[in-house]
Amino acid sequence: MKKYELIVPCHFGTEALLKREITDIGYDVTEVTDGRVTFLGDEEAVARANIFLRTAERVLIKVGSFQATDYEELFQGTKAIPWEEFIPSDGKCWVTKAASVKSKLFSPSDIQRVMKKAIANRLLDVYHVNWLPETGESFPLRVFLLKDQVTIGLDTTGESLHKRGYRKLTAKAPIAENLAAALIMLTPWRGDRILVDPFCGSGTIPIEAAMMAANVAPGMNREFTAQNWDHVVQKRNWYDALDEANEMVDLSVETDIQGYDLDNEMVTIARENAKLAGVDKLIHFQRRDVKDLSHPKKYGFIITNPPYGERLQEKNEMPALYQTLGERYRNLDSWSLNVITAYEDAEKYIGRKADKNRKIYNGMMKTYYYQFMGPKPPKRSSKDE
Question: In terms of domains, do 187 and 299 share one?
Fold first, then answer.
């Protein structure tokens, strides 16, 4: 079976989580850089990584790496890669994204144009044809330039892995599914513990938690670009990975996962999304104001993505909102509070300095994940707890 070097991008600040996930599914990580983790794997690894990784953005097959300080070097370096091993004579290949950091070549459109021409020249020579019809399968590429080092990845995923297939309806500013999963994984929460999201919006955080509790693989209900590349990843690898995912699902687990929102429409949307994810029986959604947040049990978790006050008219509402969140949290017995926000005065109005404060990029927006840690519960059975 073919061996590949696989590059997996992720949200900045979540690299350690992704590394752990890759190790947990049985692969050796070779490099961790800002926003990317690289590991070695075969055809089966391509399928399993796409289906099982919760915090990943996509899975790329590294097809080449070289130095380029001008466009001629970029052209020649790209042309030297054996593209015919991946792209058939009718394949459609293009650079979907080019990112450049501290490199002499920095224009994405020029990088894309030069590389497209180099690949076409190579394939025309190899296949002994005068033109390439590009009527077959798609082979999108992602290119990273760092200090004049060009790294090219063949995108096996297609639509980003945060698109699990369940979120047909969204809130105004939804949190990405893979980032929601990362926020949960950054806490000691497990499926038998209480989890409440008092600003649940379209339900992403509770749904991701329920999927974890029931062992529902994040990519088992969607498709991937490489599923049609039989010469790169044989079909049986996708079938095997899907069979493995199905065998792991356990919807009989008992959970206490709750999502609140002040907007009735959002509650309806969240319920519908949970149903599409197959975990609606594991979550209780309701219309409720944060000022009414309460729970009779101990050792629960609040994990939430409250409003940031980005719009001017909302900015004035932020102090009272975060103050209320802090007050309700203090009235809970031995709970933990985990808040991701770009609102710079969050700690001030919550009323306590966070035990942990992580910088995480939500897309291009710099946010902070404030973690107020509650005490650990005594060791006892989950039934007693």
Answer: yes
Give the CB-side neighbour count of residue 18, counting CA atoms within 13 A.
31
The pLDDT profile of the chain, 385 residues, written as one tens digit per residue, is: 789 999 999 999 999 999 999 999 999 999 999 999 999 999 999 999 999 999 999 999 999 999 999 999 999 999 999 999 999 999 999 999 999 999 999 999 999 999 999 999 999 999 999 999 999 999 999 999 999 999 999 999 999 999 999 987 666 667 999 999 999 999 999 999 999 999 999 999 999 999 999 999 999 999 999 999 999 999 999 999 999 999 999 999 999 999 999 999 999 999 999 999 999 999 999 999 999 999 999 999 999 999 987 765 578 899 999 999 999 999 999 999 999 999 999 999 999 999 999 999 887 889 999 999 999 998 865 455 4
Residues forming a β-bridge with 279: none
Question: Residues 147, 284: one domain?
Answer: no
User: Are both 205 and 112 inside the same structural domain?
Assistant: no
Q: 261 is in which domain, residue-wise?
A: 177-216+249-372
Rounded to two decimals, what is the model's pTM?
Answer: 0.94
Residue 27 sits in the same domain as residue 138? yes
Look up residue 115 and give its DSSP letter: H
Gyration radius of the chain over CA positions = 23
Q: Please, what is the end-to-end C-alpha distance for the chain in angstroms? A: 47
